Amino acid sequence: MDKVERRKERLDRGIKVRTEGIYAVSSWQEVAYLVLPRLVLIVGLLLLPLLIPALGFSLYWNKVISYVGIYALLALGFDFLAHFVGLVSLGGAFFIGVGAYTAALLNKSLGLSPAFTIPMATIGGALISTLLLLPALPLRGVYFAIVTLMYPLALMRIIEALNIFGGTDGILGVAGFPNRWIEQYLIILIVIFALFGLRRLVNEDIGLVFRGVKDNDQSVRASGLSITLYKAIAVFIASGLGSLGGAYLSHIYMFSGISLFALDFSVIPIAATVIGGGGTLVGPVLGCFFLVPISEWLREFGTLRIVFYSLILMAFIMFRSEGVMVYAQRKYHQFQRWVKV
Amino acid sequence: MDILIYGIINSFSLALMAIGFTLVYGISRLPNFAHGALYVITGFLVWSLINLLKLHYALSIPLALIIMGLVGAAIYRFVLIRVRGMATSEIIATYALGLAILEFLRWGGFKGMTYTLPVFIEGSTYIGGVPVDFQRIIVVGIGIIVVTFMWLFTHFNKIGLAFRGMAQDEHAAMMLGIDSDWMAVIAMGMGSMLAGLSAIALLPLGNIVVEAGYNVLILSIAVCIVGGLGSWVGAILAAFMIGFLQIITVAYIQSHFQMVVALLAIIITLILRPSGLFGRQKELEERV
């Protein structure tokens, strides 16, 4: 009995190759191939707040959409830092906390409305986070991860110990949003813009430098570019996204306190990125749409939900570390066949 | 005198916590973020062996240590071996594992004042006019024994020497016939046992609480980073530095700042001297 040795061969689909150049506009089929996935995502996101009451879910789930958006921003920041710049940040809660406190302080002490505090907290929070992380930027790998893990904890303990910014009680009575439609649609629009903006960014020249920093920072340095500067820019972008989420959250909760440095904000974005597919930017957003509702649904089980998504995270990283979106993209762009060896 | 004696005790506690972490990282380059969880789980294991299975205290300690060793080896063999060499995945996998264990214990109701381990010997004595209970003296004793044992083990034992070989150059060690995965399994098992030992020595001083897991993780990372990862001398020196700093902060400033000291020590060390006080191996290429 002779054994036939065979292996799987992967090839790009013809339509993918045809749509790479300007000729993509020559037929509707090819235009659809390019536009459809993006359109489905955008339209789906925009319809979501309308669908929820229509499908009979309670108003509470409309609130969950805003949370999903905030986590999606964090996850985008994490994916961008980890897979395009090579900085693994375990401190998503740090960005959230800084943004939330900045927005709450601006709102309470200067009396500014959310329309001003959110942009100001985004820029201000990003500046503060970048300045605080600046000393840690030369580090990489495990060391950067450890330091970013420490930052939210340190900030939390310092606020507790010095009893500043309302101490353990936090800042109460922050202004809320005028109505829930603005609350939901604003964050969805922000997420869409952040997603496509980041995708554009990583394909520009600066994105190339970012990847250079990740893969071989010595060669970037040899080209006469400052690694620290580019890392600072990347951290500024990611922490801006996080601070935006934090500022948004403090206006939704109408409260800002040390609970915003909680572990959830550090773990869920990482889990969403791993499940959704690191390095795709879309994956983490979709991962959040899967994980955050589950997490809210499991809220009554208390901390068991952290156990739940830690285990999902472990399972994915052990067995399917490429994530869902990488798999989906491969299926969309390529086909497989068996060939004899 | 207060500060001197309690500083020494605190330093030895820190050294005990950190030695397991530094062993695993030094040998297999695996940052074991589940270290704190292993520490807490040992506490509960001993507690349940005593209170649920009604075993004798002296019997449940070695039993718990052996189980922890097996748990550690199993964690490497079934989880970490799959992500070995991918730094990001290693961090995320161990971090997730630690979180899962700790939050599961928290959900299971292991919190509050109800869970305590008995001390080894009751009572206290006076050293230079300062009251010190026997358990704290035992902690110092165990600390000294463990440190000496680890030094002897890594210098005069075949497995210990293989550990050091792996730490210095894994590829060269593999060429000389050292099985790197097997060594990593042993290292992880020993690391978990050491985490368990520190838990058994330190937990009788207070309650078994889940939060201790996070604190132990932070403190051991602090000690390892300040001392320079993979360096025994550095780790012990760093334990003394942070230990005394903490006691001084508690005595003169406020006990709230105890953890802040450790966190600031990490951040300042990484900024000023990224390789730590005594870090030598591969420090430049991998950190900065």
Quick rundown:
Chain A is 71% helix and 5% strand. With 341 residues, chain A is mainly α. Chain A starts with 5 loop residues before the first strand and ends with a strand.
Which shape of chain B, going by the Cα principal axes?
globular
Number of domains of chain A: 1
Q: Which oligomeric state applies?
A: heterodimer
Spatial gap, N to C terminus of chain B: 41 Å
Question: What pair of chains forms the biggest interface?
Answer: A-B, 40 and 40 residues
Helix content range of the residues of chain A, please?
Answer: over 70%
Order of helices and strands of chain A: EHHHHHHEHHHHEHHHHE
Structure description:
The complex is a heterodimer of chains A (341) and B (288). Chain A has helices at residues 14-18, 28-54, 60-85, 92-110, 114-133, 142-162, 180-203, 205-215, 217-222, 227-253, 264-276, 282-297, 304-319, 324-333, and strands at residues 6-12, 171-172, 255-256, 334-340. By secondary structure, chain A is mainly alpha-helical. Chain A has a single domain, classed as Orthogonal Bundle (ABC transporter involved in vitamin B12 uptake, BtuC), CATH 1.10.3470. In chain A, the strands form two sheets. A two-stranded antiparallel sheet of chain A has the order 1-4. A two-stranded antiparallel ribbon of chain A has the order 2-3. Chain A is globular and about 75 Å long. Chain B has a domain at 2-120 and 130-209. In chain B, strand 1 (124-127) and strand 2 form a beta hairpin. The radius of gyration of chain B is 19 Å and the shape is globular. Residues 281-288 of chain B have low confidence and may be disordered. Chains A and B meet through helix 6, helix 11 and helix 13 of A and helix 3, helix 4, helix 9 and helix 11 of B.
